Structure of DKNYY family protein:
Amino acid sequence: MNFTTLILNVLCLSVAMSTSPKLQTTNDSLDIKFKNSYYVKQATDSVKPNKSKFHVVIKGAEDYDIVLTKVQKETYEVAKQIKTTQVLDKTIKPSQVNFTEDCYTVSTGVKTIQNCLSDDEQLHSIAYLGFIKKLNSVVVTEDWFESTTSNLLINLDDGARSYISGDTLIFSPNLKFIYSYAHDGIDFDGMSLHYIKDKKAKPILVTDYDMQDKYKVDFSALGDVYWDSDTSFLANTDNDYYRFKIQDKHVAYRNSREATIIHSENKKFIIKVDQLKDGTLRYMSWNKPNSTKDKPDLVLYNGEKEEQHKYGSGFDYRFENGAYLYIIEDNVETTSAKRLMLRLYKANEEILYTSLSNLKELNKAK
């Protein structure tokens, strides 16, 4: 290319740029495009959501949470090969159990439990699912019209009974937890998780449509699962493999702490950030008037620590839970009211920004 040709190309490019449409950068257009935008705030506060790993804590009923992570297919396949003992034995029918096509009767030392199809027109089938020797209990299936199939667990000693939603029951190795594939008989399939206490099955989690939307997990596609420990099972959808870890709140937050990094409060809640013995970070909060002597209302694991310089040197402690992002800002050098802050986002939109009192410093001053 000679010098004359080069000059002509440059002139043509200049004309094209001068006549092309310009990006609108008026204040009005920016307000419309970026109003309440998380990504505008991050330019000044250096807040960047980390989506490099999938880690969700699902709050369960009573004393348990479920820590949900993704695993490699190889990890899932290993769990799939673990042989488990058949817990429900359908070949054993204790003498206390009488079963026909239309009725069942279970006699215990305390009371007699029975049901017949003629007793309720919504009950359209019954079945004997089996005997659980270790629990000295039997399981009877009641299939209700346009309702979740219910498995009735009946203890033969005292007649204690409880319902477990779903079809096939898959027990953990120590029979403390029960997974089931649940459905409502019409158009929803999901999962249910129960634990055994006082000879009864008590629910930890039963998924629904709202939960699928919240955690972005297709619980309806899980199907059978495979327990790889007493508190952990693996499942898969078409393209993803998951580990469900059942976390005992009492044991977890009392016994696994190495050091407390943040101990704070405001008028509504108490918040602690701990470093655990395995080196990871944990977030816990209590809704007042509860105290740290009570079980936490929220526990999040696998937090991240990031150095920040928003108000002098400091650190951010970040914890993700589905669509939510919790950030504790520990602005070490500032003397302003923003010394210790809680920032909460939902779907990248800030929904809370509030100051906290540092209880560690208050306790030192006393």
About this structure: Residues 256-365 form one domain. Residues 172 and 230 are 5 Å apart (CA to CA).
